[in-house]
TrEMBL record:
Coiled coil ranges: none
One Pfam family linked to the record: TetR_C_6
Protein name in UniProt: TetR family transcriptional regulator C-terminal domain-containing protein
Organism, as annotated: Mycolicibacterium komossense
Family annotation (PROSITE patterns): HTH_TETR_2
DNA-binding stretch(es), residue numbering of this chain: 36-55
PANTHER family given in the database record: HTH-TYPE TRANSCRIPTIONAL REGULATOR RUTR, HTH-TYPE TRANSCRIPTIONAL REPRESSOR BDCR
Residue ranges of domain HTH tetR-type in the record: 13-73
Lineage of the organism: Bacteria, Bacillati, Actinomycetota, Actinomycetes, Mycobacteriales
Keywords: DNA-binding, Repressor, Transcription, Transcription regulation
Length: 211
């Protein structure tokens, strides 16, 4: 049976997806300073003309690659779960997704480290770092508010507690990326969970994860 012909919009979307996926890999592997547009085009299997059609320069590509990776992580956290999903389970997924717990999240973390280095000296990178940090804190704050509203969590200052949880994830994530021999992912999650759960009335251990 003959397959339906793809539209120009579908082809463009697939090309953009391939470019962003390739950019994420190369930035994580080589660092932003070494990345070249032709390297991304080759990895994505597209022409340099197609790459430049979607992204004018490395800076725009870098920013969109980070947003692309962040959005994929967000979908993993929020989508594909039952309607009866609890705030506790969602908070646990957010904490896991905020640490380098899988190969794909290590790749995302490597890009964040590149971003943080650039944010110290470059205003656009600083703005992007703040944007993504606020979005991650927003996931946490929304989850805390949902848990408080349904009586699952003890009432608290959700904005302040979200900042605390986010900061703990960032701090432990850096140590895990550096390969601190005295720290494991299991230990990091347990400590974060202890501090996160204390104010929320959570007394159970960190929930088992699907990955």
């Amino acid at each position: 049976m003959e397959q339906p012909r793809r539209t120009k919009a579908e082809i463009a979307a697939e090309t953009r997806e391939a470019i962003l996926g390739a950019a994420c890999e190369i930035i994580a592997e080589e660092g932003f300073e070494k990345i070249r547009m032709r390297m991304v085009a080759q990895r994505a299997g597209v022409s340099t003309a197609a790459l430049h059609y979607h992204f004018d320069n490395r800076e725009k590509l870098f920013a969109e690659a980070l947003r692309h990776s962040f959005e994929h992580t967000g979908r993993d956290v929020y989508q594909g779960h039952a309607d009866s999903d609890s705030a506790t389970s969602r908070l646990a997924r957010i904490i896991s997704a905020s640490l380098p717990t899988t190969a794909s999240l290590r790749l995302e973390w490597a890009m964040y480290q590149e971003l943080w280095c650039r944010a110290n000296r470059e205003p656009q990178s600083r703005a992007l770092a703040i944007e993504l940090s606020r979005a991650q804190q927003g996931w946490i704050e929304e989850t805390l508010a949902d848990g408080v509203a349904c009586g699952e969590f003890t009432p608290c200052d959700t904005a302040a507690h979200a900042r605390l949880i986010s900061s703990l994830c960032d701090g432990f994530g850096v140590q895990l990326m550096f390969g601190n021999p005295s720290l494991t992912i299991t230990e990091a999650r347990a400590v974060i969970w202890q501090h996160a759960g204390g104010a929320l009335g959570i007394t159970t251990p960190f929930p088992a994860q699907d990955h």
